[in-house]
Amino acid sequence: MACRELQYYFSNEANSDYHRGSAAHFEYSPFGKTTVASGSIPNRFAFRFSSEYHDSETNLVYYNYRYYSPELGGWLNRDPIGERGGENLYGFVGNDGINKVDFNGLWIIEILEWLGFYDGCCNGVKYDKRKQYCCNGKLFEKTEKKEIFIYAVPIVRFAIIQHAWIEWNGTSAGFGPIEEATEKEAIFTNVPGKITSPEPSLYTDSPYKILLRKEVLKADKYDLDIIFDNLTKEVKKAKDKPPIYSAIRSAHCEAWAQNTVTRAMELSRCKSEN
């Protein structure tokens, strides 16, 4: 009776031979140099790094169209399309052997892109997650942003805030006591407040103004189409029905500016992302 011939199979699992142990086990550096070769018959396996043919005599890997040298980390032949494939005519997968592959020596494929990891769907529209955000069913470029600032003019001698206000999209708004209120009343009692928009240049163009807060908003969290509208609405709401001003009870200009910006941001948060 003829003896049954032992068969071997390639596997990316270390325990491919479940009964007899691994016949050959290989580990590689990011550029394919063999760092570990173990098992009972490792030299009998010709298909190794990147599942391509490995010539044990020359230590080269054959990619069908070009030979690759793991020792050099590059191709032995020039790129067939010349500089159109990049300045380095012998470079291997853009020097990124961890995240990119080349199936035949002709073009580079990013693994995560090939697997569709960056593919997104926004309201039925396909988009690249590396370049765009999806917020409330709308696409925004990752380079898009909206900025909101809170400035203040201090009383330098006492190191306290004299007045604070908001600036955004070429306009501004601030909160303070009505003109009829005395300084003492505005500090120690409750007086009617008022909204000024835009703020006078006495403040906005002051050489002494300082930045208290800066918000750089992007569409990963905020709907950029409505953030400025919501801030404008919050200012108008306060202008139509001014709150009470009281410096001693933290109902002053800075508190109003901080709270108004925060409310507008909360109203503009992305409610849905695809």
Concise structural overview:
By secondary structure, the protein is α+β, with helices and mostly antiparallel strands. The chain has helices at 111-114, 183-188, 201-204, 227-240, 253-267; strands at residues 25-28, 34-38, 53-55, 60-62, 67-69, 74-75, 100-101, 109-110, 119-122, 125-128, 132-135, 138-141, 146-155, 160-168, 171-177, 191-196, 210-217, 244-245.
Describe this structure in words.
- With 274 residues, the chain is of the alpha+beta class.
- The protein is built from 5 helices and 18 strands.
- The strands form 6 sheets. Strands 17-13-14-15-16-18 form a 6-stranded antiparallel β-sheet, with helices on one face.
- A hairpin with a 2-residue loop joins strand 14 and strand 15 (171-177).
- The two termini are 64 Å apart.
- Mean pLDDT is 84; it is low at 14-19.
List the keywords.
274 residues; alpha+beta; 2 domains; four-stranded antiparallel sheet; 5 helices; 18 strands; rod-shaped
Instruction: Please tell me the total number of domains.
Output: 2
The shape, in one word, is rod-shaped
Strand order of the largest sheet: 17-13-14-15-16-18
DSSP helical segment count? 5
- Helical percentage: 10-25%
Q: Could you tell me the strand content as a percent range?
A: 25-35%
Order of helix and strand elements from N to C terminus:
EEEEEEEEHEEEEEEEHEHEHEH
Based on secondary structure, the structural category is: alpha+beta
